[in-house]
Amino acid sequence: MFDDNKNDTSLIKSSSIVIREVYSHNLASEFDIIRGLIDDYPFISMDTEFPGVIYRHNPAVNPNNLRPSDLYRLLKSNVDALCLIQVGLTLSEAQGNLPDLGTETTRFIWEFNFRDFNPARDPHAPDSIALLRRQGIDFERNRTQGIDSKRFAELMMSSGMLCNDAVCWVTFHSAYDFGYLVKILTRRHLPARVDQFLEVVRVLFGNNVYDVKYVMRFCEKLYGGLDRVARTLEVDRAVGKCHQAGSDSLLTWHAFKRIREIYFVNDGPEKYSGVLYGLAVH
Question: Which stretches within 20-174 are classed as H helix?
Fold first, then answer.
């Protein structure tokens, strides 16, 4: 599925990259653009921002001893109770180039801002919201101009991104990311069991799903969060800040591309697809 010319990054390096901020007023037009790009840019890197976690595991229990079912129970409790704040999408073609929308000089990624979450009303982790504020997320603007997640779900279902075997999803530690997307796409609480959840993810997003946090298990000297992994790989953040969904989606894509170049020279990472870190069911 990946192009053999793994080192052709000239267009990315020589072009400026712009985050296309999406609110309610331009949601439909931006999805029109994405719908027209999917056939040529079928690699989608995705990240979300959400209000932290309010349910945690028993601190007396070693987290390394938690089973996938235990981790999923926590995930479900949090996702069912909380609201999505942002979704970031980076579209790419096999050589790693982003769409230029006819400009030839500028490459584009997307950041969707939702109105569902109101910090004055909705449950959240205060430290997480404080961090997101410091990173520039404007909760007041989101509340007044943001996207209704129901409308987002309707447009995403018809965008060509879902239920499409030609599309490849690239993520980082993404069980919660997919949890929030499944919640808004199905308009209901998450399934009761982890195997049911993973089947919904497979139906909606396909088998070509790469969680970089899982792939890292098979890559020497790679560990930690996204920013640490990027530093180890000598990959720079091209635009935006950490904990902004658009910027993080792009950094995830660049990190994944670099991992392919370093660790999968002779064979691709395909055997590690379809597994979300922490939720592998054997």
Answer: 27-37, 68-81, 126-134, 139-145, 149-157
